[in-house]
Amino acid sequence: MNAIDKIYTKRPYYGIPRMTRELREGNLTVNHKRVYRLMKIMGIEAVRPKRNLSIPDSTNEVYPYLLDNIIVNHPNHVWGVDITYVSIKGNWLYLFAVLDWYSRYILAWELSDTLSVDFCCEALKRALTINVPDIHNSDQGSHFTSGEYTGILKQYPQIKISMDHKGRCFDNIFTERLWRTIKYEEVYLKEYSSPRDARESLTEYLKFYNEQRFHQALKYKTPSEIYFKKSVKSF
To answer: pTM score, two decimals?
Structure first.
């Protein structure tokens, strides 16, 4: 599954046949039935780089996508959130992050060994102690449509809730790019031996990402520099 995750992060448009071929090119003995089974377990499919975490609960409210034709032009204009997998020896952890789209600053993140919504809620609460966004964007997954999660957002009347179109892989493009950066610069270079090891290493890397990593899109400034230079607390 780790090999599939690496290929999928790089080429989310790969379906079963091309994924199988790519794995074989990497000298892995697999057939399309096994690849199908593993991708199903991981909840991924071609052209839709979302995990099965993205399947909504039919009883939860889904909000419209508000970012069509929007130019994000200041910190806290749009926050994007998502969950991704992080492999550790013999298992998986789940990484959640709150990202300011304008500055690429990670306001809060959390790592969990379960898919309970609690770890997402805790990270969101921490982010909201820093500032409040105009728009909060997520996919339509059950975590983000849950009453526990949206209930936190509803405590701030100024926040507009936005959710990706179903099946659209680029509505949350900045957060998807964040996952690719984290995986290629950190996760794929390490072999975490335990949840503690993963948390310690990710803590160090994400601090580097926010405070020291220069971004070409930010004219070679850091996310922290852009976020705190231009951000004014709105509550």
So the answer is: 0.78
